């Protein structure tokens, strides 16, 4: 059986700075993997290359065995993506965004309408009916982005910080949707800075540090008997930085 996602030797430099430095990662089918790492570690760059939004300098990304660059139609039909800093058609309403995306994917209009109704309802995007995306809050943009990623019922979801700026009620809804997606046989890769959330939701973890995989595997394997936060700090050697103080703030 093919892996849901298989990354081999992914590399990307921006100018002289190497953002991703040889990432190898396998996401088994049915896995819910949390990708964690410090700011600038290379998570977004890795995920963008994994889904075919950014061309790597070297390496491959296979989605259920389909190369995202050599066989983009097959690969992209299987993935739903919530990219970082989502570029959206700003002058459309939330419903129009879903209709546009659904029709672009070749879905029948009746199916697009029915799923859009359900997604807007479940994600409580009531205002989305009439409000243009340009007027959305950050959290609403995340939610309509997630709805877009789910619309065509993909087999793999790749979500860049899906809970960022989302209120607790909506976060609970999103967690339920994602758990249901995995229970139904789907696979998920999500990036997050919130270790508690990764521990709560994910069964696999990959820790990225300075463009490389510092640790990857089942949650229990990576935790190695400690909390994910403790293990993370240890792996990325961030303890000394975390302990630094601004002495001039003390009175
Ligand atoms: N388009 C770009 N041009 C130049 N440098 C970039 C570009 N995109 C990313 N970088 C650099 O690549 C490195 C990795 O960035 P990336 O956004 O992948 O990190 P990240 O782990 O997602 O960080 P964060 O947690 O802060 O979102 C950083 O040093 C960043 O400055």
In words, what does this structure look like?
It is a single chain. The model has no long low-confidence stretch (mean pLDDT 92). The N and C termini lie far apart (62 Å). The protein is globular. Helix 3 packs antiparallel against helix 4. The strands form two sheets. Strands 6-7-8-3-9-10 form a six-stranded mixed sheet, with helices on both faces. The chain has a four-stranded antiparallel sheet with strand order 2-1-4-5. It contains ten helices and ten strands. It is of the alpha/beta class and 251 residues long. It folds into two domains: 1-78 and 155-165 and 177-251, P-loop containing nucleotide triphosphate hydrolases (Rossmann fold); 86-153, no CATH class. It binds adenosine-5'-triphosphate.
In terms of per-residue confidence, which ranges show pLDDT below 50 for 5 or more consecutive residues? none
Task: Indicate the CATH class of the largest domain.
Answer: Alpha Beta
Helix/strand/pairing category? alpha/beta
What small molecules does the structure contain? adenosine-5'-triphosphate
Task: Compute the number of structural domains.
Answer: 2
CATH H-level homologous superfamily name of the largest domain: P-loop containing nucleotide triphosphate hydrolases
Helix content: 25-40%
| Number of extended strands | 10
- In the CATH hierarchy, the third-tier topology of the largest domain is known as Rossmann fold
Order of helices and strands: EEEHEEHEHHHEHEHEEHHH
Average predicted local confidence, pLDDT = 92
Intertermini distance? 62 Å
Shape: globular
Number of helices: 10
